[in-house]
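Weekly sync, protein design subgroup
Attendees: M.S., D.O., the rotation student, P.L. (late)

Item 1: inverse folding check
M.S. brought a backbone from last month's batch and wanted to see whether the design step gives back something sensible before we order anything. D.O. pointed out we never logged the input encoding, so this time it goes straight into the notes. Structure tokens as presented (254 positions):
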């Protein structure tokens, strides 16, 4: 049983992609289940097999602790770790190839709190990887792209797991914009040149320093364009997970 944690900023399309990827796996004959880890989700574009809301809901936290939505989300993120053992007992009853974990909408509530490491350890760190979604609306300029990639690098540093970088919602991009963003990630010299051509000098200086830090730490590599709307890139997610977990070989399924 291998775990894919889908993470990304609010609005990056995590839940929609989880639902689309689950459908693609079903159609491909690969067994998978979905775990929803967002206690504040009102509606989901899929039917979760295991749902944190069975143990913890944002409304209950707001009532019990007399908190507003923002404060309740923080408390709920920490309370997830309290309920993780019960969730793991339910998960242990499943026999499946992949567990698709839909993390909370607010990235910081999952990636930057201690409960995240408790959660990952409970699922099994050696059997887990991150699928990081970058929202194209935040990556249209060189400085915006650098900011998004820096955030992704921090998430990986925080959780210490293999990570697949995805450019989500590619159906909303022109071929030119999509190609440029992919080049920025896979060919650092292209991003370097576009940073030099940026109009805002103060922002560019900061961007150049972040660029150098990213280059020195080996952040650059491959990024895959995906679309839950058009089912684009699903095979790339599968191939990357196979590479991480099985060295590129298909997992054995009974």
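Designed sequence read out in the meeting:
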């Amino acid at each position: 049983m291998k775990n894919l944690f889908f993470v990304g900023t609010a609005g990056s399309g995590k839940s929609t992609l989880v639902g689309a990827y689950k459908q693609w796996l079903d159609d491909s004959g690969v067994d998978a289940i979905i775990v929803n880890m967002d206690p504040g989700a009102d509606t989901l574009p899929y039917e979760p097999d295991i749902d944190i809301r069975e143990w913890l809901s944002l409304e209950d936290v707001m009532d019990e602790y007399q908190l507003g939505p923002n404060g309740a989300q923080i408390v709920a993120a920490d309370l997830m770790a309290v309920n993780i053992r019960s969730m793991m007992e339910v998960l242990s009853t499943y026999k499946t190839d992949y567990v698709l974990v839909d993390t909370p909408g607010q990235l910081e509530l999952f990636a930057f709190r201690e409960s995240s490491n408790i959660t990952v350890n409970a699922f099994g760190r050696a059997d887990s990887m991150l699928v990081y979604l970058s929202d194209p609306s935040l990556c249209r300029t060189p400085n915006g792209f650098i900011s998004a990639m820096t955030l992704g690098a921090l998430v990986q540093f925080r959780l210490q797991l293999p990570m697949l970088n995805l450019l989500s919602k590619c159906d909303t991009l022109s071929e030119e914009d999509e190609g440029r963003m992919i080049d920025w990630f896979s060919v650092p010299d292209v991003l370097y040149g576009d940073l030099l051509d940026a109009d805002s000098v103060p922002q560019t200086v900061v961007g150049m320093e972040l660029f150098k830090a990213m280059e020195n730490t080996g952040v650059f590599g491959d990024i895959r364009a995906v679309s839950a709307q058009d089912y684009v890139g699903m095979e790339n997610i599968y191939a990357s997970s196979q590479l991480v977990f099985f060295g590129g070989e298909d997992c054995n399924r009974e």
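Discussion: The radius of gyration is 19 Å. Residues 69-91 form the longest helix (23 residues).
Action: P.L. to compare against the previous round before Friday.
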